Amino acid sequence: MSNPNTNCLEGMQCPRCGSYSPFRITVTSVVNMADDGSEYVSGYGEDWDDDSHAWCPSPCNFEGAVRDFKKDPESA
Question: What is the pTM of this model?
Answer without folding.
Answer: 0.76
